[in-house]
Amino acid sequence: xxxxxxxxxxxxxxxxxxxxxxxxxxxxxxxxxxxxxxxxxxxxxxxxxxxxxxxxxxxxxxxxxxxxxxxxxxxxxxxxxxxxxxxxxxxxxxxxxxxxxxxxxxxxxxxxxxxxxxxxxxxxxxxxxxxxxxxxxxxxxxxxxxxxxxxxxxxxxxxxxxxxxxxxxxxxxxxxxxxxxxxxx
Length: 185
Ligand SMILES: C[S@@+](CC[C@H](N)C(=O)[O-])C[C@H]1O[C@@H](n2cnc3c(N)ncnc32)[C@H](O)[C@@H]1O
Known about the structure:
One of its GO terms (biological process) is rRNA (guanine-N7)-methylation. Helix content is 28%, strand content 23%.
């Protein structure tokens, strides 16, 4: 099972779906999630949106009627058989899934958003909950665009409380707009 954090319209999840992995996408923006679903319809994909309650039913912090797709269900035309689930959720509050749910977590160009507002608390919630939801043998790959060296250092400090990992950079010599990959295990 794969989790795509900040999945947007599903661009990064699509290759994994095509390889036959069951994926869960989480994003705050309903529009992106709906766009993803419509795109799939346009391409006549046989994929559907599933309300897989078992994923979050054991978490205490989630109110399924308000925070998850819940009331918007009809718009998304959920059904019960599919290869993916889409969850609407504000990731500043961490990940709303039960423990050991995922073998692989990916996140493309999302993490930097956690630096708006009380970033320390948000990063702690994020990495703390990530440690719980990814299986012990699981892997996480997070690509992000830090705005400063401080952001990189703060991210590493907090992530390393919960994981071991490596940081790989595309353009090591530039400070801003630098594309980094944080690989956690
Ligand atoms: C640059 S887009 C990347 C989308 C996708 N991962 C991709 O590669 O195409 C960043 C995504 O993060 C989502 N996002 C930003 N802040 C968020 C939050 N607090 N909770 C959940 N999703 C958030 C946005 O809605 C957006 O879809």
